[in-house]
Amino acid sequence: MTTTATPPTREPGSAGPAGGGRAGIAARTLRTDRWWFQPLITVLGLTAWLVYAVVRAATQKYYWVGAYHYLTPFASPCLSKSCIPEAAHFGRPLPEFPPLIPFAIVTLSFLLAFRLTCYYYRKAYYRSFWQSPPACAVREPHRKYSGETRFPLIIQNFHRYFFYVAVLISLINTYDAVLAFHGKGGGFGFGLGNIILVGNVVCLWMYTLSCHSCRNITAGRLNHFSRHPVRYRMWMWVSKLNERHMMWAWITLGTLTLTDAYIGLVSSNTLTDLRFIH
Amino acid sequence: MGTQRHFRIWRGDDETGDLVDFDVEVNEGEVVLDIVHRVQATQAPDLAVRWNCKAGKCGSCSAEINGMPKLMCMTRMSTFGRDETVTVTPLRTFPVIRDLVTDVSFNYRKAREMPAFAPPEGVAPGEYRMQQVDVERSQEFRKCIECFLCQNTCHVVRDHEENKQAFSGPRLFIRAAELDMHPLDAKDDRKEVAQAEQGLGYCNITKCCTEVCPEGIHITDNAIIPMKERVVDRRYDPIFWLGRKIFRRPGMPEKPADGRRG
Amino acid sequence: MTDIERHSYDVVVVGAGGAGLRAAIEARLAGKRTAIICKSLFGKAHTVMAEGGAAAAMGNVNPNDNWQVHFRDTMRGGKFMNHWRMAELHAKEAPERIWELETYGALFDRTPDGKISQRNFGGHEYPRLAHVGDRTGLELIRTLQQKIVSLQQDDFAETGDYEAKIKVFAECTVTELLVTDGRIAGAFGYQRESGEFVLFEAPAVVLATGGIGKSFKVTSNSWEYTGDGHALALRAGAKLLNMEFVQFHPTGMVWPPSVKGILVTESVRGDGGVLRNSEGKRFMFDYVPDVFRKQYAETEDEGDRWYTDPDNNRRPPELLPRDEVARAINAEVKAGRGSPHGGVFLDIASRRSADYIHKRLPSMYHQFKELADVDITKEPMEVGPTCHYVMGGVEVDPDTAAAAVPGLFAAGEVSGGMHGSNRLGGNSLSDLLVFGKRAGEGAASYVDGLAERPAVAQADVDAASEEALAPFAREGGENPYEVHSELQQTLNDLVGIIRREEELTTAVKRIAELRARVDAVAAPPGRKYNPGWHLCLDLRNMLLVGECVARAALERQESRGGHTRDDYPGMNPEWRKVNLVCSSSPAGDVDVVRQPMPVMPMGLQHLFDRAELAKYVTEEELTAYDAAPSGDGAADEEEEN
Asked: TM spans, by residue (chain C) (predicted)?
């Protein structure tokens, strides 16, 4: 066919030799906007939250308001013999914990894993902490890159497992929030703490259900929505939430902190809970 | 009527090149491509630039403007300050041919390695029946104008030339998703192909492809993540794994034998 | 001189839009080794710009639709200047061509029962356009592109070489067809990227290069539309048909300059938009021609009522056929009542709610917002006519798409006859598919029938190479960009939407002067991706085609479809029987001769009412119509679809 050899490097669909050099532009990026701002605030935000959470979970104190049955999500469920018995809604099957070990270590580790493998948080920390890449069209500092193809990052694929567990934990948090409608000395009670707890639980559900894995499970994995109208509607609903997954990710960091801090302050008698009923 | 603006345009080839300064007239309502054309018509007749429709529909005039991957025909001059220097450079990820023109054959090669649509057996032309809700996801991906801005901006190949072998890039991931979600496509190993041959696992979902897509395709949320999840369905999910064991269903229950239903 | 890369193929397809890709698929399916020459990158051709849809009488939305109705609509739209056989084949085969696309992976919008949805469009009696939102052209080209890739994968599986049987030469421009002993022997061109020459030895060449819009200043066409195929055919000895018919779309953007010419869809008017002049007047009421008087509203009130109650009211005159509206806008601007940037106002903001506009015209909203910074829900658009499509083109045999030169074929916009004097919206995409396939088939069977392949003459190659390099040799020659802009201005001003004898004569004279200048344009040095050089070469084609348009326009003394003569208003039945055929001498002198229009068989004629036919044909023809037995006759003997 070809009497004069075509250069072997010529590629389909486009003329020209491949492997030729790229344009010689040395600058890391030519972006003129404040591309570094987003990763910076992400680092600050996530670090601040992490420090707070570690400190609070490790103190093993002020996690329970006995009068109103407020339990901070950071200590739920409280399964250790070290827990205040009333705060242990599911019994105390675990032995006493030494200092610094969070009472909710079991759930907290799953929740942490859920958030660590979350598609939004992955973007956030890859971009900010790992700088891979720090922003679009800004060169990353690493010489090699293999993404999520091998250990340890291939574990990101287990997000699904953590999602299932996170649903269970959200149920526990919901249960905690319901039990917290407890008046001083028994019976029904309702205070500002309840609003905060319920608000937090609602946001946690929003975050959990807006998860990309959840979206896949409802109907994303199907190719014929038309044959599964109910699942399709669920998918539509989850898809809508999913568009705001990043927002829920940050909001829940906020509500978790707020809930824990409020309960901590009430529990340590720094603050008095504003009571509406009992 | 017009104002004089300062442009820096990269000129050169695969051996040598540099940013060249131009002072050029800019009129109301113009886009970067107009200015590049004016430079061409009045100052540098051999300035190489690739373009076609000039209406954001063909995806030819991809370049980097002040460092951001963009279509030159859709970047209005009014988005820049009056005294702002506008820097136009070729796509960084691909080999440069001359000036603003790059060799984008990488993308065509990857497209050719991607298994094509497999028509369902026994369904004659004219007998295809598909519901609108079932084709809508794939239709989103077919909006792609192949400007290759996503391919260019993806750090997996932009910053790591050596990954070009193993990684197909966002444009081909949406093609994989398009076909995998196609209600009548008869091929059922697209997830495996995406994982094993296209390098889906390289993607760390940092979403720059979505950020630069001029068609507003939700590349990451609607194609890449769903594909990753579909891979998980097959390879990592505990419940589906159990379900398959118990109910002895060999594959995923989603590819109908008879494509005409629905 | 440098080495010339040589390739040998069975069929070379010049052009990689819808028609070219469909032709290539067919040639490859017929077992022919096929090359696709692509002026831009693969998949970027102008076909992507098509929005509305592809017309095919599938009857999915209205079961009354069939090929006869489609045929009738097409003939009416073209004011009976269409080649009847092309219109017939087109109407009959379009549905199969569309369905076939689904087997290639196309995803059209669906009806509730899962079939391909079809939409209404101007001039089509029933909802007929298969579509995907407003990006049908993109779907079409991507589908064909992916089909070609899949054929390459088949070849790879078989031979280990993707390009064993079909290869795409991207960013490659053919500058000359090589003819030996009156038959096609090959094609000569250059590769943009390297500037190197390439020679294709092939007994069959399919032209699918699209239109000529870039010869005009204001156009909706892209830079590639320089009439290459038209000019290549002429220089190879083929003929161009009815080049005077150029479609000007009435509403293109006029401001800002960067988007001048880009289409503003007809749906804006269909959904309630009205045209106003600088005095705020809805001027279209003053421009309803007598033949349409009965069908169009006389007051604004009546016109406004039509949108909600079309049965009891007549449609507003904004919805007159494209040529009428374009002429009216032109007249208003000439009378000094235009908008600041030389158009008129298209106002939907004051007539419909912002919500409605967002819902009905999302892409228009987007287009004006992004490109013009105009919020069409708040302010009027400025619009004016823009050169959109050329109905004229290479004269071909309807069944095989063969041109006059053996071995040469043409399909799509570059071919002539199918659309008569005016193309209906939606008919171009189906045209590409129907005649693209036929051209591929025609080329393949031509190759099969060859006892011996014509050999390329070295002298022709040398001449082509010399011609292509000439712009480098002219030191101190003219800037091609300036000459181009003058050519565009000349055609725009003098061979534009309204034409008259003095202007056309002047145009012919100007073009002759420009030819001397085109012969003297100089390219900046360097062959590698040098747009200045490319323009020098394209200019030759634009000039040649421009001259054909001007001369044919001067010749045809009537107004019909895309050809409006101020000095000869109205259609003339005698002129309907006349095709104007352009040819060129080797030296480039254009000649226009009259040729009789082929007579439509009676069976097809009887698809029309006598009263309707009477508007177009001569007394003599009517007598023949009356004499023939009525009934559907020959028309549906062959096939019911």
From this structure: none
